[in-house]
Amino acid sequence: MKDKMQIKIFDTTLRDGEQAPGCSMNITEKIQLARQLERLGVDVIEAGFAAASKGDFQSVKLIAKELQNTVVVSLARSVKGDIDKAYEALKEAKHSRIHIFLATSDIHLKYKLELTEDEAYAQAVDAVKYAKNFFDDIEFSCEDATRTDPQFIYRVLEGVIEAGATTVNIPDTVGYTTPFEYYEFIRGIMENTKGIEGVDVSVHCHDDLGLAVANSLAAIRAGATQIECTVNGIGERAGNAAMEEIVMALKVRGDEYGADTKIKTTEIAKTSKLLTHITGVKVAPNKAVVGKNAFAHEAGIHQHGVMKNRATYEIMTPESVGFAKTSLVLGKHSGKHALAQKFKELGYEISDGELQSLFEKFKNLADLKKEIYDDDLEALLIGGYGEIEGGYRFMDYTAFTSDGKQAKTVIKLQYQGEEIEEVGSGDGPIDAAFDCVGKIVKEEVKLKSFTIEAVTQGKDAIGLTHVVLEKGDREIQGRGASTDIIKSSILAYINGINRLKMGGASEE
Ligand code: KIV
Ligand code: ZN
Description:
disordered C terminus
C-alpha cells in the first residue's frame, strides 16, 4: 500500500477564530488553549496578529515562549512595521513562522488597497525579502485568492517563493469557491507556478456557503500540503473550516484522499469542549464529530443495529475522538490527588494553588450533589474562572421573591479586603441581583446576553451561566457555575465585571 501523504494542520483558532463575535479570549485562556492544541498535535498555531494590539502582541509572545514542539505564527501585513512586531513577539519561540498577507483580487486592490497589480506584486515580494532578515520559515497568503486572476496568482507566488517564502497560502477569504472549482484552481497553481514543488501549499477556507471543509479536502486532492482551520469551525462570519471534520475525514476516508494528519484524535473532544467553555459559544447538537448528538442513535432500528454491531451505523467511534461516556467519577471521600488526576485525564493542567481552591469547591459540591460527573468537574473549573485575583469576590446572597411582586436581592461581596453589602430590586431575583452588583461595582454596563443551562442531568445539576456585558464598544464575557442558579448568575456577572476591570489580551 502506498504511504499516505502527511498533511500539516495549521490551527488559526487563536487568530481568525478569535476574530469571531463572542469568541475573544484573554491571555490566560489563550495560553490554556494553545497548550491543549499542542497536546492535540497540531503542526502550526497561529497565535495572533502581533501588530494588531498590545494584547495580541503579548499573547503571541507568551505562547511563543510556552510551546515546545509546535510552530508558533504571527500574522503580519506586508509592511515593515508589522514584520518587526512579529519578530519581536516571536524571537523567543523554539519554532517560529511569520505569516505575511496581501490581497490580490481586483476588487480588494481597487477598493481596499488602491494598488495596481504591479504595485501589489512589488509590495508582496519586498515584504518577504525583508522578513527573510529575521525568519527562515515564511508563509505568504494571497488574500481573496479565489477571486483573483489565476495568472496574477502564479506571478505573485513565483515572486514570493523566489524571495524566500517557504509556504504559500491560497485563501478562499470570502467562502466563494466550490470543491470542483477550487480543485482546478489549486491544480492550475501546481502546474503553472515556478518553484511551487519546493514549498508547502496551504489552503484557508471560509464557510460562507457551508463548503469550507469540502473545499479544503478538494485542495488536498489537488496537491495542498497544509490546511488552515479552527476548532469547532469558529471564525469570521460563518467561520473557518472545522479542524475536527477535516482530521476525521482524512482518518476515516484516508483511502479516498491518500492523506492523513498527525493529530491525536482522542484529544479532539477535549479541545472542542475547552474552547466552548472558554468562549461560551456552543456547537450545534448535530455538528459533525463534536456535536452532542454526533454519536447518538435515536431511531429504534438504528439502536438495534448498533447493539449487534456498531459499524452498522457508526463510521467512527466516539472513543476515537475522545468522547468517553459521562461517567460517575469521584465521590465525597475522594482525595485531592484523585481530583488532580481526574482533571489531568480530562485534559486540564491545574496549578497547586488552583487545585486547593478547586478541591474545596469539589467538597462543597459533593455535599450538595450525590453523583459527580466529568462535566460537573469541568463546570467547577469554569466556576473557578469567576475569581480573578484582585477583583470582586462573592461572599453571600439572600433573595426575596414572590409571584407578581418586585424581587429584592441582598448581596455581600469582598473587594480588596473590604466587605460590601447592597440591596437591589428587579423583576425577579436575578434581575435584582444584577441591579445589586451594579450598585456595588459602580460600573455602567449593559447586559447583552444571558444564558443558563444545566450541565448534567438531574434536579441537582450544576447551572452554568454565561453573560455578555457591553461597555462602550467593548464586549466582555462572564461565566459562573453553581447548583444554585441565582448564585451561578451572580458569579457570572461578577466574573464579567472583574474581566472588564482587570482586562485581558483581546479585551483591552
Ligand atoms: O481569510 C483570509 O484570507 C485570512 C488571511 C489573512 C489568510 O484570514
Ligand atoms: Zn481567514
